[in-house]
Amino acid sequence: MTRSLAVLAVCGGLLLAAVPIAAHHSFEAEYDRNKPITLKGKVTKVEWQNPHVYYYVDVADEKGVVTNWAVEIGAPNGLYRAGWRKDSLKIGDQVTVEAFRAKNGTPHVNGRSVILADGRKVFSGQNDGGPDRN
Amino acid sequence: MRNQAIRFICALGGAFTLAAAVASAPLAAQGAGSGAKVPDITGLWDGAPGGPGTRDLVQYMKSQGQEVPFTPQAAERYKHVDFAKNPNGFCLPPGPSRALTGPSPFFIVQHPSVISISFENHNIYRLIYLDGRSHPEDIDDYPSFMGHSIGKWEGNTLVVDTAGINDRTWLDSYGLEHSAKLRITERFEVKGSDLIRYTVTYNDPEFFTKPWSVSLNLGRLTDTRMLEYVCLDNEKDKSNLVPTKREEFQ
User: Fold this and answer.
1) What is the ipTM of this complex?
2) Phi-psi region at B125: left, alpha or beta (left = phi > 0; alpha = psi -120 to 50)
3) Which of 16-55 (B) contact A at CB < 8 A?
4) Contacts of A45 in chain B (CB under 8 A)
């Protein structure tokens, strides 16, 4: 947890208002605003790359079957300016992701925020016209 | 932590030092040919916080009590546009004005005979020629995503005319298309060392019954830097896009 990310968790709304985080595609063409999903699990990989940062979370269902979900968040440039760093999420971190599912039904979501293991909520949303979870 | 938070927010706010907006602009740069002093706008800029958003220009116009003057055909196109075809989603250049009205910083380098704008978004650029040249005679035969720009200083305002824009870009992030007859005029009115009032006027007789304009403030960024944006680096969205019409979610 970097200092900046902690600050973002405290004042995320303000910072996102000041630093738009671009999405390079239309939210509505890929994700379903009527299919919010909350994923709880461990981070398995982080890709700090353009055009979007991705991280992956292993999530077990009620039968114990584990699915690895891809979570798309903002572009690294905008996230960096909002206080994120490439090590803000680490492999093995236990997280709760508030997201919207992909329309095509794959285990792939658009992450709007993430609740870290210590309970702090960090915004990872994108200024793409998509819905807020709050 | 609280103090750290406040410091961080203050630092971010400092990126847009608009408090100095009313200060007089430095008259440092030389205008092409005339020898006249013109404002120095070299540096890193972005849309300033506050004011109506410009990512959705129909909504922007409504916020101004106006409507986009669509022709009937253009109104149909707008109504039925497929959001999966947002050119940005295919990592294509956004066009000369969307590069400015959308989010992402850009770096202006000023020379008496040309102004270059390097855009972080998509690693693209514009050149605005100030040396008195005209548009190439065949510009309409070879349209491009970013068009061909010529400009001149009128006092503290840089006035730019752009032609030769292809019909493959959107004017905003919400499916506002245009034809290859689009021509834009931009006014960069330097209001202070850290503030430019940017106004773009769209003139496209196929899409709009009359020219119409959008304005926003551009603020100088002082405590960040240009970052690289290579859209195809780890692109995973294209294969997941689903045809999506406006009426499905609005």
Assistant:
1) 0.82
2) beta
3) 16, 47, 49, 55
4) none
